[in-house]
Design goal:
By secondary structure, the chain is mainly α. It contains seven helices and no strands. Keywords: Membrane, Transmembrane, Transmembrane helix.
Length: about 160
Protein backbone atom coordinates (compact mmCIF):
# COMPACT_ATOMS: atom_id res chain seq x y z
CA UNK A 1 0.00 0.00 0.00
CA UNK A 2 1.28 3.44 -0.93
CA UNK A 3 -0.27 6.90 -0.70
CA UNK A 4 2.10 8.27 -3.34
CA UNK A 5 -0.54 8.50 -6.12
CA UNK A 6 -2.90 10.38 -3.80
CA UNK A 7 -0.20 12.80 -2.67
CA UNK A 8 0.45 13.75 -6.30
CA UNK A 9 -3.22 13.85 -7.31
CA UNK A 10 -5.13 17.06 -8.07
CA UNK A 11 -6.60 18.83 -5.03
CA UNK A 12 -10.16 17.86 -6.06
CA UNK A 13 -9.27 14.17 -5.77
CA UNK A 14 -7.56 14.73 -2.42
CA UNK A 15 -10.64 16.54 -1.07
CA UNK A 16 -12.90 13.83 -2.49
CA UNK A 17 -10.94 11.04 -0.77
CA UNK A 18 -10.63 13.04 2.45
CA UNK A 19 -14.44 13.29 2.57
CA UNK A 20 -15.48 9.86 1.32
CA UNK A 21 -13.24 7.74 3.58
CA UNK A 22 -14.67 9.11 6.85
CA UNK A 23 -18.14 9.09 5.26
CA UNK A 24 -17.78 5.36 4.53
CA UNK A 25 -16.69 4.57 8.08
CA UNK A 26 -19.18 6.87 9.79
CA UNK A 27 -22.01 5.68 7.54
CA UNK A 28 -21.36 2.05 8.46
CA UNK A 29 -21.34 2.99 12.14
CA UNK A 30 -24.63 4.88 11.79
CA UNK A 31 -26.32 2.03 9.93
CA UNK A 32 -25.37 -0.46 12.62
CA UNK A 33 -26.06 1.60 15.75
CA UNK A 34 -29.35 2.68 17.39
CA UNK A 35 -31.32 5.31 15.51
CA UNK A 36 -32.98 8.50 16.69
CA UNK A 37 -30.58 9.24 19.54
CA UNK A 38 -28.91 12.65 19.91
CA UNK A 39 -25.62 10.99 18.89
CA UNK A 40 -27.27 9.56 15.76
CA UNK A 41 -28.63 12.98 14.81
CA UNK A 42 -25.29 14.73 15.30
CA UNK A 43 -23.26 12.08 13.48
CA UNK A 44 -25.92 11.92 10.76
CA UNK A 45 -25.52 15.65 10.10
CA UNK A 46 -21.75 15.23 9.90
CA UNK A 47 -22.21 12.26 7.55
CA UNK A 48 -24.52 14.24 5.27
CA UNK A 49 -21.98 17.10 5.15
CA UNK A 50 -19.25 14.63 4.20
CA UNK A 51 -21.49 13.20 1.47
CA UNK A 52 -22.20 16.67 0.05
CA UNK A 53 -18.47 17.49 0.00
CA UNK A 54 -17.81 14.14 -1.68
CA UNK A 55 -20.44 14.79 -4.35
CA UNK A 56 -19.46 18.41 -4.98
CA UNK A 57 -15.75 17.62 -5.22
CA UNK A 58 -16.50 14.97 -7.86
CA UNK A 59 -17.63 17.68 -10.27
CA UNK A 60 -14.01 18.87 -10.39
CA UNK A 61 -12.66 15.40 -11.22
CA UNK A 62 -12.56 14.77 -14.97
CA UNK A 63 -10.40 11.67 -15.42
CA UNK A 64 -13.14 9.76 -17.25
CA UNK A 65 -13.87 12.37 -19.90
CA UNK A 66 -16.93 11.20 -21.86
CA UNK A 67 -18.98 14.36 -22.30
CA UNK A 68 -17.32 17.75 -21.85
CA UNK A 69 -15.25 16.47 -18.93
CA UNK A 70 -18.09 14.57 -17.29
CA UNK A 71 -19.05 10.91 -17.15
CA UNK A 72 -21.96 8.79 -15.89
CA UNK A 73 -20.40 8.80 -12.40
CA UNK A 74 -21.34 12.47 -12.16
CA UNK A 75 -25.01 11.43 -12.40
CA UNK A 76 -24.39 9.53 -9.18
CA UNK A 77 -23.11 12.76 -7.64
CA UNK A 78 -26.40 14.46 -8.55
CA UNK A 79 -28.24 11.51 -7.00
CA UNK A 80 -26.21 11.96 -3.80
CA UNK A 81 -26.92 15.70 -3.62
CA UNK A 82 -30.66 15.23 -4.12
CA UNK A 83 -30.63 12.23 -1.78
CA UNK A 84 -28.97 14.24 0.98
CA UNK A 85 -31.65 16.88 0.62
CA UNK A 86 -34.36 14.18 0.71
CA UNK A 87 -32.85 12.58 3.81
CA UNK A 88 -32.96 15.92 5.64
CA UNK A 89 -36.49 16.79 4.52
CA UNK A 90 -37.86 13.37 5.46
CA UNK A 91 -36.12 13.34 8.84
CA UNK A 92 -37.58 16.76 9.64
CA UNK A 93 -41.05 15.62 8.57
CA UNK A 94 -40.60 12.51 10.75
CA UNK A 95 -41.04 10.31 7.68
CA UNK A 96 -38.52 7.86 9.06
CA UNK A 97 -39.17 5.06 6.55
CA UNK A 98 -38.38 7.36 3.61
CA UNK A 99 -35.37 8.75 5.48
CA UNK A 100 -34.02 5.22 6.08
CA UNK A 101 -34.59 4.19 2.47
CA UNK A 102 -32.80 7.26 1.12
CA UNK A 103 -29.85 6.99 3.52
CA UNK A 104 -29.36 3.29 2.77
CA UNK A 105 -29.45 4.07 -0.95
CA UNK A 106 -26.90 6.83 -0.49
CA UNK A 107 -24.60 4.56 1.50
CA UNK A 108 -24.84 1.38 -0.56
CA UNK A 109 -25.10 3.14 -3.93
CA UNK A 110 -23.07 6.27 -3.38
CA UNK A 111 -20.28 4.84 -1.26
CA UNK A 112 -20.17 1.05 -1.51
CA UNK A 113 -21.29 0.74 -5.14
CA UNK A 114 -19.21 3.60 -6.46
CA UNK A 115 -16.31 2.64 -4.20
CA UNK A 116 -16.05 -0.81 -5.72
CA UNK A 117 -15.39 0.75 -9.13
CA UNK A 118 -12.48 2.78 -7.76
CA UNK A 119 -10.53 -0.45 -7.32
CA UNK A 120 -10.62 -1.34 -11.04
CA UNK A 121 -7.08 -1.74 -12.42
CA UNK A 122 -5.74 1.56 -13.68
CA UNK A 123 -7.73 3.69 -11.22
CA UNK A 124 -5.99 5.59 -8.44
CA UNK A 125 -7.39 3.61 -5.49
CA UNK A 126 -6.24 0.41 -7.16
CA UNK A 127 -2.70 1.84 -7.39
CA UNK A 128 -2.87 2.99 -3.75
CA UNK A 129 -4.15 -0.23 -2.21
CA UNK A 130 -2.90 -3.02 -4.45
CA UNK A 131 0.62 -1.94 -5.37
CA UNK A 132 2.65 -4.97 -6.37
CA UNK A 133 0.61 -7.67 -4.64
CA UNK A 134 -1.41 -10.02 -6.81
CA UNK A 135 -3.37 -11.71 -3.99
CA UNK A 136 -4.26 -8.55 -2.03
CA UNK A 137 -7.15 -7.44 -4.30
CA UNK A 138 -8.93 -10.73 -3.80
CA UNK A 139 -8.38 -10.69 -0.03
CA UNK A 140 -9.68 -7.13 0.28
CA UNK A 141 -12.73 -7.81 -1.91
CA UNK A 142 -13.48 -10.97 0.09
CA UNK A 143 -13.24 -9.03 3.36
CA UNK A 144 -15.54 -6.28 2.01
CA UNK A 145 -18.02 -8.89 0.81
CA UNK A 146 -18.03 -10.62 4.21
CA UNK A 147 -18.63 -7.35 6.07
CA UNK A 148 -21.46 -6.40 3.71
CA UNK A 149 -23.06 -9.83 4.03
CA UNK A 150 -22.81 -9.62 7.81
CA UNK A 151 -24.39 -6.13 7.87
CA UNK A 152 -27.22 -7.11 5.51
CA UNK A 153 -27.95 -10.36 7.36
CA UNK A 154 -28.00 -8.51 10.69
CA UNK A 155 -30.46 -5.99 9.28
CA UNK A 156 -32.68 -8.71 7.81
CA UNK A 157 -32.64 -10.62 11.11
CA UNK A 158 -33.60 -7.45 12.96
CA UNK A 159 -36.49 -6.78 10.57
CA UNK A 160 -37.81 -10.34 10.94
CA UNK A 161 -37.68 -10.02 14.71
CA UNK A 162 -39.79 -6.85 14.57
CA UNK A 163 -42.55 -8.47 12.48
Amino acid sequence: MTFEPLLHAPIAIQIHVAAVVPAALLGAYLLLRPKGTPRHRLLGKIWLCLMVVTALSSFFIHQINMFYGFSPIHLLSLYVLFGCWGAIVNARKHNIEAHKRIVRGLYFGGIVGAGIFTFIPGRMMNRIVFTGDEIAPFAVLAAIALVLLWAVSKELWHRRRLT
